[in-house]
Design goal:
Length: 457
C-alpha cells in the first residue's frame, strides 16, 4: 500500500513537465554514476538534447557510411537488435541469411564456380582487413615451414593511399610494412615500385578500390600481371588482398566490365563495407576468400558451448545480427537493378559536382570525371593550402566537409572531400556549391559579412 508521501511524490512527478523537473537545473555527474537515477523521460530528453550538438548526418559529407534506410529495413533492425550473430544454433535462420549474403557477394565478385568460396561478416572493413591479412600471414608461415624455411621477417607491400588499418595490422601482428610513397603527380599505387619491394617474405600486396584520400582506384590488373610475372621468374606466389571498402559495392553495378576481383589470379581475398555503398547503417562489413584453402584451418575456431558446434573466424566473439539481416534485406529488396539505379545516381551527382568545380576559378577537382561518387578537390593558387579555412566556413552552413593533407611525398597537397551518398541530392549539391562560393569570398576578404541563402538544415 502506497504511503501518503510516496503517493504525493508520484503524483508530482506525473504532473511536472519534462523541462520543469529538477534534473534540468542540477549539475549532472558526467564521468561517474550519480547516487540516484532519473525518470526515463528526463534521461531521454537530456541525452537527446545534448546530441543535438552533433552534426547533421545528412550534411556530413565527410562520412562514407549510410545515413538513411527504408522504414521496412529499420523495422527489421529494430526487431533483431537483441540477436547475437554468433548464436547461430539459437538463431539458425539468421545464420542462413549471412551465408546467403556471402554467396551473393561471391557471385558479384566473380568467384570461380569450381572453387569453395568462403567468408564472414565483420563489424566493418577494418576487422575484415585484419582477418584477411592474418590469414595470408598464416598461409605464408605454413608454406615456409613445409619447405623448411625461416618464418621470420614477414612483410606487407602497400601504397601510401591505404587506410590506417593496414599500418595497424603490421604493428599489431609484427609484420614489416613496405609502403610505396605517393607523389605530387600520382595518388595511387605505383606498380613498378611495389613489385620491386616484393620478395619471398611478402605475405601479400594490398590494392585499394577507392582510396579514402581521393576516391581513386589502384591499378589492380597491372599489379596482378606484375605478380604473375614475378611468380614465373622467382617461383613464389604472392597474393593480392583488395580493399574494396568503398568501391567493392560500386563497381559491380556501375562498371561490371571493369576487372579488379576474383577474375584475377592473384586476388585471393576481398573486403567490402556493407555500411558504405552497401547501403546499410554501421556497422557491417564482409570478408571473402577466393577458396576455402586460402583460410588456414588453424585460424577457424570450433565451439560447442552455444548449443551446437559452430565455426567462428572473427576478432571479437559477439556482434549484432541486425545489420547482417539489413544487408540481406537490401540485396533482396533492391536486386541488381535497384543498386544500379541508386549508385548510378550517386555517381552522376558526383560527376556533376566535379564538373562545376572544374569550371570554377577557385577550386579544382583531383579527378574531373571520378570513377566513384567521391570528389576530392583543392584550392587553386594563390589560395592553395587554405582548405581548412574553407572547411571551417562551410561548417557555419551546417556542412561537414573534411580538409586534410595527403600522405607522405604528397603531404604538401591539401584537399577537401565530398562523398556523394544516396541521400545527397543534386539540389543539395547546388546549395553546397553556393556555400562554397560564399566561403571563398570570405577567405579573400575576412571582413565581408556572410550573405546568400540561409543554412541548409
Amino acid at each position: 500500500m502506497l504511503t501518503r508521501r510516496h503517493h504525493a511524490r508520484k503524483t508530482e512527478e506525473f504532473l511536472t513537465p519534462t523541462y520543469g523537473t529538477r534534473f534540468f537545473t542540477n549539475d549532472l555527474e558526467a564521468f561517474s554514476m550519480s547516487e540516484n537515477g532519473t525518470n526515463p523521460q528526463s534521461a531521454y530528453q537530456i541525452i537527446h538534447d545534448e546530441l543535438e550538438l552533433d552534426g547533421n548526418p545528412s550534411l556530413n559529407l565527410a562520412s562514407f557510411v549510410t545515413t538513411w534506410m527504408e522504414p521496412e529495413a529499420q523495422k527489421l533492425i529494430s526487431e533483431n537488435l537483441q540477436k547475437n550473430l554468433v548464436d547461430q544454433s539459437e538463431y539458425p535462420q539468421t545464420g542462413q541469411l549471412q551465408h546467403r549474403v556471402i554467396h551473393m557477394l561471391a557471385s558479384l565478385f566473380h568467384a570461380p564456380e569450381d572453387q569453395d568460396v568462403t567468408g564472414t561478416s565483420t563489424i566493418g572493413s577494418s576487422e575484415a582487413i585484419f582477418l584477411g591479412l592474418l590469414a595470408h600471414k598464416k598461409q605464408w608461415q605454413s608454406n615456409r615451414k613445409k619447405r623448411g624455411l625461416s618464418t621470420e621477417s614477414p612483410n606487407l607491400v602497400v601504397g601510401g593511399d591505404v587506410h590506417v588499418v593496414w599500418e595497424k595490422f603490421c604493428r599489431y601482428f609484427d609484420v614489416e610494412l613496405r609502403m610505396v610513397p605517393l607523389s605530387k603527380e600520382r595518388f595511387v599505387l605505383d606498380v613498378a615500385v611495389a613489385t620491386s619491394l616484393v620478395d619471398e617474405n611478402t605475405i601479400a600486396v594490398g590494392a585499394v578500390l577507392g582510396t579514402t584520400f581521393t576516391g581513386q582506384l589502384d591499378p589492380v590488373v597491372e599489379l596482378n600481371e606484375a605478380l604473375e610475372k614475378r611468380f614465373l621468374e622467382k617461383g613464389y606466389f604472392v597474393p593480392i588482398h583488395v580493399d574494396g571498402a568503398s568501391g567493392g559495392f560500386l563497381l559491380p553495378f556501375l562498371d561490371p566490365e571493369f576487372v579488379w576481383d576474383f577474375r584475377l589470379s592473384h586476388v585471393r581475398s576481398i573486403n567490402v563495407s556493407g555500411h558504405k555503398f552497401g547501403l546499410v547503417y554501421p556497422g557491417v562489413g564482409w570478408l571473402l576468400f577466393r577458396d576455402r584453402s586460402d583460410l588456414p584451418d588453424d585460424l577457424v575456431f570450433r565451439v560447442n558451448y552455444l548449443g551446437a558446434e559452430e565455426e567462428t573466424y572473427t576478432l571479437n566473439f559477439s556482434s549484432n545480427a541486425a545489420f547482417v539481416i539489413a544487408q540481406y534485406y537490401n540485396l533482396l529488396r533492391l536486386g541488381k537493378q535497384g543498386y544500379r539505379q541508386i549508385l548510378h545516381n550517386c555517381l552522376e551527382n558526383a560527376r556533376f559536382f566535379a564538373r562545376k568545380l572544374k569550371k570554377s576559378s577557385i577550386f579544382i577537382p583531383v579527378d574531373s570525371h571520378p570513377s566513384l561518387p567521391i570528389v576530392a578537390f583543392s584550392l587553386r593558387p594563390p589560395h592553395a593550402g587554405r582548405e581548412m579555412e574553407i572547411s571551417s566556413e562551410l561548417r557555419k552552413f551546417g556542412w561537414i566537409v573534411p580538409a586534410y593533407s595527403l600522405p607522405p611525398k604528397a603531404e604538401n597537397i591539401m584537399v577537401l572531400r565530398v562523398v556523394v551518398r544516396e541521400q545527397v541530392s543534386r539540389n543539395m549539391l547546388e546549395h553546397l556549391l553556393e556555400h562554397l562560393d560564399i566561403s571563398s569570398k570570405i577567405l579573400k576578404n575576412p571582413s565581408l559579412p556572410v550573405q546568400g541563402s540561409p543554412p541548409v538544415c
